[in-house]
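Page 37, top half.
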Amino acid sequence: MKSHFEFFTREKLNQYISKRFDLNENSVSNLEDSSRTYAQEIELSDGLENLSDLKATYILIGIPEDIGVRANLGRAGASEAWSSFLNSFLGLQNTSFNAVSRFCVLGNVITEDLMSQAAGLDSSIHRDRIQLSHLVQVLDQRVSEIAIKIIEAGKIPVVMGGGHNNCYPLLRACGYTEPIDCINIDAHTDLRAAKGRHSGNGFSHAIKEGYLKSYFMVGIQENYLSQPMIDFISKSDAVNYSRFNAQYLDVNGEVEKALRHIDSNYFALEVDMDAVANFPSSAQSPVGYSFQEMRSLINEIIKQANRLPRYIHICEAAPKYGYPNQVGKALATLVNDLP
């Protein structure tokens, strides 16, 4: 396991601690005040054996890759989301109103070797795209391995960064013994043909292989639906969606539709940042939810569901296409909203 996962260390965490020294002192010895940030107080773990003993409910892991996005002919950049998220999240204030004790930052799936192999591949060349697909399959195994351990420990993985290809290994980790349901807030269905692996067919593979039972999509933009997708959805009682409405959003109504379709005692929550208008992402669009609407949808799903999701996956954010700290602060806000 350790060969495929890099645990977050105290030494690495120290890099995120702001050194706000007392400006009335000549030496850098006394801090400005007694405030404490998440970086100073967040829980860590250097192994998987004692995850169940952690105080935290949510275990934060990153997947710094965009191989699946490229294999789906999308634009690269999602590999930077984990780092951007940490920069903002670990700088939040730990207070009686905002306690970091909910969270443990575990680390990230090792992807450097796969990203290196993908670097010289051109997705517009068919044989290169096949190689990208093969690399995604290797990544699938690495993601499933760590997710299974966290879930077995009774904790909730909060997975950040990378493409929507990573929904498949996460669903597989949950649905191996009992198929799981899923709500996906997304502009796209990601129900492309289950041929090869990329960011557009993770749900197709999960359904085909029996890991995903009932699937509901919130915010689908119907102009992106292909005829095969329309035919598949119309023939399946297990798959349904609510379309994006440009005139208004009834948050409670949308959430009620989603929860009626799935079993909220055993479900996963997927969040694709492509669904937010003008958000720096793999498939950025001027059409979509506002960030506050996305935030409300997530919060209301968690509030109305019978249980917390078995995992939460926030994907496709691409910081390089935004202004400094924009993506990191947005992602940190979504995670910090968790109860």
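Page 37, bottom half:
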Amino acid sequence: MTQPATIRRVPGPRPRLPEPLRTALELAATGVPVLPLRQGKVPFGNCHRCAHNACGGRPNMKSAGPCRCPGVCHAWAAATTDPAVLASPSWTAAWRRAATVAYHPGGAGLTVVDLDDAAAVAWARTALPVTRTVETTRGEHWIYRGAMTSHNAVRPGVDIKSTMAYARYLGPGTDTLTALPDAVRALAVKEPSPVPPAPHVIAAPARSGNGQCPHRTPAYLERGIAMAEQRITEASSAVHATVYGTFLAVLSRHGRCGCLTDTHIARLFTAAQAKGETSRHCTDAWTNARTRLGM
């Protein structure tokens, strides 16, 4: 009896990897932890298991590494060099929707001085040592060998991205990496950029029975500011809109009686900057919220 012919499967071409994933794998192979960014230069939002830190992992974002869930979660802390994670099904799905690749500079032992405009670039050329330079949309990234704490708005148009932050990968750049200089470290200990002045009184403040403004009750005002900080901190997507909406809510509730101080406003700005907003964006959002309320 004639034996049936054995059907052999001829391997077909492997599915083509998304371009961002190919770039990410190349970077990861050199020891640079990477993650995908979606449109707007923001990370993908946490999965439902990790939303609002329900997973219990890294509530204060103090450590790097992928979450135990299979998703791309916890923003910069998801950055990894593990090719198995990067090419896993859930990550590949994110790479297919990704707009660009980001990396965790501090995890690679690097610091990025993000120069946001021509004026900042001109300043750096006179104040900082030459190092590897990458062009950005409006300015340049100056990359140094060595890690430090990240800081936003250390001077006009200048952010420092290293530990607990991410930076876009925009190419290999030019020139040679040099050691992180004291001039960059010193930027982090200077006085922070000023915040807008406290809103002026434009209406008679609400009074309690004894004539004292209820917003001056420490617990009342503190609770309002703390809730606003939490709302910004827990935003996993639409950070710009969340910051603006939170500023609007705080001003609507507490802005007309004059009880908000520079300290309260600085706390809100700090929370927003920890999510990647620049000082300029914070100022614009605050101004726009005041304008909408007629303040």
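Margin note: The beta strands are 34-38, 42-43, 100-103, 110-115, 132-135, 140-145, 151-155, 158-161, 167-168, 178-179.
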